Amino acid sequence: MEKRDLKTWRRVFGKVKGAFGETDFDKKVIKVDRSKHKNKALYNVPKKDSSLINTLVHENMHAEYPKMTEKQVKKKTRTKLKKMGRKQKLKVYSQFK
Ligand SMILES: [Zn+2]
Fold first, then answer.
1. pLDDT value at 43 more than 90
2. From 6, 23, 78, 90, which residue has the greatest number of CB atoms within 10 Å?
């Protein structure tokens, strides 16, 4: 599957309506709502999928692989997170301003 380069994308924390995060392909902006992650029961998302790091990796994945379905992104995010160490996770956090 074709992977996109996110060099020209901006990644920010901010308010998102109705979701943990969003990927705007026109503006090339990934926005993640940090405050939403305090309420883990939101949107019927299972606990394992509702951590902040999960959302960051998830939204990155949407931007990198625009053709992936929501189901694929969820599955791949879980697999990726299992392989990621502390350093790699910190790197993902540092992408967001
Ligand atoms: Zn998604």
1. no
2. 23
CA of 70 to the centre of ligand 1 (A): 5
pLDDT band with cut points at 50, 70 and 90 for residue 45? confident
Write the single-letter amino acid at 33: D
Share the mean pLDDT of the chain: 92
Q: For the sheet containing 10-13, what is the strand order?
A: 10-13, 29-32, 21-24
Answer yes or no: pTM beyond 0.70: yes
Q: How far is the CA of 50 from the centre of ligand 1 (A)?
A: 11
Domain boundaries, the chain: 10-95
Q: 10-95 has which fold?
A: Zincin-like (3.30.2010)
Nearest to 74 by CA among 28, 39, 43: 43
Ligand 1: distance of its center to the CA of 86 in Å?
Answer: 23
